[in-house]
Design a protein that fits this description.
Two copies of one chain form a homodimer. Chain A has about 700 residues and is of the alpha/beta class. Chain A folds into five domains: about 1-140, Rossmann fold, CATH 3.40.50.720; about 160-300, Rossmann fold (3-Layer(aba) Sandwich); about 305-465, Rossmann fold; about 510-585, Dna Ligase, domain 1 (2-Layer Sandwich), CATH 3.30.1490; about 590-705, 2-Layer Sandwich (D-amino Acid Aminotransferase, Chain A, domain 1). In chain A, about 40% of the residues lie in helices and about 20% in strands. Chain A contains 23 helices and 29 strands. In chain A, the strands form five sheets. Chain A has a seven-stranded mixed beta sheet, sandwiched between helices. In chain A, strands 9-8-11-10-12-13-14 form a seven-stranded mixed beta sheet, sandwiched between helices. The longest helix of chain A has 19 residues, at about 445-465. Chain A is flat. At the A-B interface, helix 5, helix 8, helix 10, helix 11 and helix 16 of A face helix 5, helix 8, helix 10, helix 11 and helix 16 of B.
Chain lengths: ~700, ~700
């Protein structure tokens, strides 16, 4: 298993002193030719650049070397741009020479059928044996904009001219390049890694690198699939430890997307719900579209979210003011109440018919008065009662808008509070250009701006609440289930006994092999009791008449025995029957919840907790966490449920035993950790929770364990 | 009350032969000067244009007239651009001359405090007395792009050069102008009415006009508030009758938005939920942002949604293909299965490593082969198994993208199936311009494109299902409650008797004045019964111990009497007590639902129907309709509930009596219509519904009636 490299290791790949280009070419449209142009004409090489091509002695006035072996020094990075058939030989040469990093641009490997897959596997073996790291193959290369270094064949690299604190890690090149083109809108992306087939280095490794890279403040990633869940989690932990936000767009929220992404990247595909839950747990800001990725990254690059969350709105159209205020409200965000001195200044300076309370509507009449705009916008932007100012610009109005753009730039100089101009028009005029040149990346609609502010605000709240906290002491077994081995459904009694051994409270229960024993057990427990068929072959007991509840006395126990046996034998004549499980009935009242655990193929064991009973599937009032839980996780899970107010004692009901519920979640987490290699799935549904002091008890338990083949 | 004008009436305002401009000016930046420029330099006047200004004899080489009275003929429209102080006098002059329409650009009326409000009122009186119609005041004017006529002072009018089948009706000018600037993206807007203070003509009137205007196919509206609900509904009905989609952005979804919009337009503000429900009922396509308004309008202008709803995706980047497929899936839309001949063509022409099943990923390698792209895109676009083709373009790639744009234009020539190019890059290059010139208005992100397609598809489904149907036979009283009059809570028994008189089935119930009478009544009904305090002063009976359920015999009735009386006297010593309401208890099992009716200040009586009981507030599983209901409405309401599958008999429960539920909804609607002038509010919660044949019964009833003061 490959270990995730430290940042220091990758630094030599990302900011190398000495580079070799193997397959350098003078054909301008070839991969080798384009890469050569990017390196020579558009890059700054810190040390040496060696061109390798056995068929030439010189290329564009530079010496050409016949092989890696022949170079006067060992390069930090060898960029490989030879045809697929020649890649393995070059890789072997590099391994022999001790080159630490290969950037393999060539395609025709894992993405190109079985033969390519074999070649890719061989490439990995060569690299592993030599301790050499590979980036690619089948990738557009690596763009270090902040160091002005383009180890890439992309003809767009010469236009990638806006350095900045945003780091971008993607798999495919097309979507990544799309994000890079957001530089047109003033977004400064300092580093772009596009990892292609990920034979060795993965998106996760570059997130890990960026988490401590001094020139990167904000990490952005596009994921089509995840090759190695634990490696990604380690990277995310490192980003959280360093206070850097990670903004992610993950394809695969629907079956169509999963299918298309899987055929494109051959990554693992877990469930979209689990993926989003893990992202939330790790503080990853998940977005739904590329424009949202860009808007959000820009806002974080501009400023980290302050504790003061309220928003100011400043504009010159009443309708736009109302639309923006509305979007603030529907986003669940707050409009600021201006400080008295702000209000006074606005009142004294703006005309009578202007709206001076937040949102400010100056009216279009004063747009030509740049001084007045600067003063009033300045007053709003320096108001201590807000954390950002939205400045929606509905119109491209020529000279008036140019003047407004100048004013926004000037006002921003006077305050650290970010002004977010929203460019709503499809006409991108001079004013727009001025804003972009001034370091603004205006979102293109009110809704998109609010989405960015909302995500920014929520991440700030998450971080102030402690963020991800210390790295987890225990590393759960997160590898997908081994192919070998069989899975077995434990019987309900087995499952409950196993849970009881782990200290999970349960109602008294025992299996009776005869009618008489059933009655004796029930008499011992006290009534009412529940009787359920005990059979390894019956999972959905109530569907075949295998359950009786509210049994009030011994006579009813015997009746229940007869009824259940008859019904089960009728529906499942072949089922092996151990007898009846007799269980004390839960007290009346209380709520029905559920706790489930599954093993996600990417991330490992995940707990699902939420509302149980008949509404469970319709309402999907559930929350999820990667295991193990910490006490804070259990607390949060209970409070995240939409139905939490009911647990607090709504509608005349007494408050539920939330403390016992949290203890149960933690106990289940411990149970899973103790059985992490074998536990495939468990389902406690319903979990009964009574009022304070009455406890929380799983009433049914299904556990599926992996057993050796 | 002003009657909504017929289209024929407004045609003379919108496409006048003869126009007078009162307040024509040679000061280029004045309202009168700018309007003059738009009329003379940028408009086509069908008949005569008269300039009126008593201080001039000539303006820009044209004769000036001293007054409206002095004109040689009566103009169809007088555009008024004089200062506020002079408007009333001009209006009187116009009224005397018999001018049918005024366009009043001047501001300083209703929006400018009490004095302005008085002047505006006077304006209305002058107009009403003369049968003259007013557009404005405080508006930017009226732009008839299709007739190339700008009765507006907007300096942007000279750029409004893209005629088309989209009609736009707005209140404020700022947001409306923003939509107009979408012409930059190829969106053809043929007519823009921006109605300002709406002293007379409203947005609704222009929607009504557009509903039958031959040059308008798609109606778009921005609403900050609604002045007259029934007038809007009549317009929407007319649009539906003519098969024209109405796309609306309504500000006021949150309290912030409502407050800001109200201060801006002085319109009525109803509840956002009611507004959205009425829109849905009338087939109005509600959008959340201006870019969505534009994307959706363009798509409808391009093509009406076909019965074949499946979607094709054609692009040249694997990541983009996956992202787009994902968005199709999360939107609940379907990817098409290509016809065999399409698949064969793609298979034979595209390279091995391309993805040929939907989504098509040609890979970037073949982008330079225009013929190949045209053939394969052409095959997809003419495939009979799909209704539209998404062509996401992730990158601006110079000449390659130009070639792609040409190909898309060519492919579109060969098929009526719309191709929707999605321009995802922030770099708007030559390829983008080519698409726009070719009549495409590319959405700017995958998510936004899908939102447009989703709304387009849903409207098509709504229309194929019969749309709005015939105009309603009865017009409900929808005027807001009169200021006079007092409201009274009927007692539960009064309310139930009133419902019973209207033929609504209820459980037997009677009020007992003494303990003994209570027992007698209960004995007569048969047990179990429910006892509830009967008092005009107690609404929330259970909160003060005023309810006992499950009373099993006569002794328990007497006990209930004592307990309830003691508890109510303890909590509410001053309450007048009529006795105990004894009611037969509903059978066990069944579901708890709720039916409520409120009077919306804009639209009138609205029914809310949905899940009752403890989950009602948390889950908000409700649906709403404007009354009266038709049988199809009742059917749809029951089926729109998220919990409908439970009513169908999920989880081993028998199916609920859905037919009785529908009858109850219709009966409540009839009841409301019969009491429409006095009914303020009613709340049947819970409504019990049993299994098939058992019926649907309101268990509690609160009715609030308006009584004369």
């Amino acid at each position: 298993m490959t270990i995730s490299p430290h940042r220091a290791d990758l630094a030599r790949l990302i900011d190398p002193a000495c580079i070799a280009l193997v397959g350098a070419s003078d054909r301008p449209h070839s991969i080798g030719g384009r890469t050569l142009t990017n390196l020579i004409d558009h890059s700054t090489i810190r040390g040496e650049l060696y061109l390798v091509n056995p068929t030439k002695t010189e290329l564009r006035g530079r010496r050409c070397w016949p092989s890696i072996a022949a170079l006067p020094q060992t390069p930090d990075v060898a960029i490989i741009a030879v045809p697929a058939a020649g890649v393995l030989a070059v890789a072997e040469e590099c391994a022999a020479r001790g080159v630490p990093f290969l950037v393999i641009l060539t395609s025709g490997f894992g993405e190109a059928g079985a033969e390519g897959e074999r070649a890719q596997q061989r490439l990995k073996e060569i690299a592993d044996a030599a301790g050499m790291r590979i980036y690619g193959p089948n990738c557009p290369g690596l763009c270090n904009i902040n160091a002005r270094l383009g180890m890439t064949f992309s003809p767009s690299f010469p236009h990638d001219l806006v350095p900045g604190p945003i780091g971008l890690a993607t798999q495919g090149g097309g979507l990544g390049r799309n994000v890079m083109q957001a530089m047109e809108r003033g977004v400064g992306i300092g580093l772009w890694a596009s990892t292609g087939n990920e034979v060795d280095l993965q998106v996760a490794d570059f997130i890990h690198y960026m988490a401590t890279a001094p020139d990167i403040k904000v990490i952005v990633t596009l994921l089509e699939g995840i090759k190695d869940g634990p490696r990604l989690l380690a990277a995310l932990q490192c980003a959280a430890d360093n206070g850097k936000p990670v903004i992610a767009l993950k394809v695969g929220k629907s079956e169509y997307g999963q299918r298309a992404a899987q055929s494109h990247t051959a990554s693992l595909t877990g469930s979209a719900e689990v993926n989003s839950a893990v992202f939330r747990q790790y503080g990853v800001i998940e977005v739904d579209d590329i424009d949202e990725l860009v808007d959000t990254a820009w806002l974080f690059a501009r400023a980290m979210p302050p504790a003061q969350e309220a928003i100011g709105i400043y504009c010159s159209s009443g309708g736009t003011a109302a639309l923006t205020a509305d979007a603030v409200g529907t986003s669940g965000l707050k409009l600021a109440q201006f400080a008295p001195h702000t209000r006074e200044l606005l009142l004294s300076r703006l005309p009578d018919y202007a709206a001076i309370d937040n949102p400010v509507d100056t009216t279009a009449a004063i747009l030509s008065d740049a001084d007045l705009i600067e003063q009033t916008l300045g007053a709003v932007t320096t108001d201590p009662n807000l954390g950002c100012v939205l400045a929606p610009i509905a119109l491209e109005y020529g000279a008036t808008t140019v003047s407004l753009a100048h004013t926004i730039r000037a006002a921003q100089q006077q305050s650290p509070t970010p002004i977010i101009p929203i460019w709503m028009s499809d006409r991108l005029g001079e004013g727009y250009k001025l804003l972009v040149e001034g370091g603004f990346a205006p979102p293109r609609s009110v809704g998109k701006a609010l989405k960015a502010v909302q995500r920014w605000t929520e991440w700030g709240r998450w971080q102030r609440a402690g963020g991800l906290g210390e790295a987890r002491a225990t590393t759960p077994a997160r590898s997908p289930s081994p192919a070998g081995g069989t899975v077995r459904n434990l019987s309900e009694l087995e499952a409950k006994q196993l849970l009881a051994q782990s200290g999970i409270a349960l109602l008294p229960a025992a299996v009776a092999a005869t009618r008489e024993e059933a009655r004796r057990i029930a008499d011992g427990m006290g009534y009412p009791v529940v009787a359920k068929i005990a059979s390894p072959d019956v999972v959905h007991k109530s569907d075949i008449g295998g359950v009786k509840v509210g049994i009030a006395d011994g006579a009813q126990v015997e009746l229940a025995w007869d009824d259940i046996m008859a019904s089960v034998r009728h529906h499942k004549p072949q089922a092996a029957i151990d007898g009846l499980l007799i269980e004390k009935m839960a007290p009346r009242g209380g709520f029905e919840l559920m706790v489930g655990v599954t093993r996600d193929p990417v991330f490992g064991h995940v707990m699902t907790f939420g509302l149980g009973g008949i509404y469970v599937e319709l309402l999907r009032d559930v929350t999820r966490r990667l295991l193990p839980l910490r006490p804070a996780d259990a607390r949060a899970m209970v409070r995240e449920m939409r139905c939490y107010p009911l647990l607090q004692g709504a509608r005349g009901k007494p408050p539920a035993d939330v403390a016992a519920l949290e203890r149960l979640l933690l106990a289940v987490s411990d149970f899973v950790m103790a059985h992490s290699t074998s536990l495939e799935e468990m389902d406690l549904n319903p979990v009964w929770v009574g009022s304070e002091g009455e406890g929380a008890l799983p009433l049914d338990a299904v556990i599926v364990m992996l057993e050796d083949a």
